[in-house]
Amino acid sequence: MAEPPPFDASFALADYRAPLDTLAVGLKFRARLMLAREFAQRLARLAQDASSHEADYPDVIAPVPLAGRRLAARGYNQAWQIAKPLARALGVRSNATLLQRTLDTTPQSRLDLEARRQNVSRAFRVAHAVRGLHVGIVDDVMTSGATLEALAHTLKAAGARRVTNFVALRTPKN
Length: 174
Fold this sequence. Notes:
alpha/beta, ComF/GntX_DNA_util-trans, ComF family protein, PRTase-like, PRTase_dom
């Protein structure tokens, strides 16, 4: 029997397939940063519609961190570009440095599921206190969930009470 994921909830706008996949590629590789604000606004509405009150919102929202080399090459973290306006829309704080990538891993897109899990299993650390907090993690695309699982494990080990993912697009299971 499969073990449940370490995160508590996930919000995703849509499946990663045409024509929406081109939006994620545009954000990630072509600096179409206005797409991040649109993704953030829609994710905020999704969270607001699913929550009975603001106490359900995360205490802090953080992006999936990029490796330093990848951040330098790209010039921005697409997840942070979504996280900032998402946090503003929900009226919660955001923190770009809450999570840090400690290993410069192989891009996940080149790996199968088990290799993805191993690739990121020890790639992150929590840089600020999260004990008792509900942490929202933001990413542009959720493929296998391995990165978000690794971050949730890391956050829970550091004392986070709850972990919720906010992703623009997710790869369909079928």
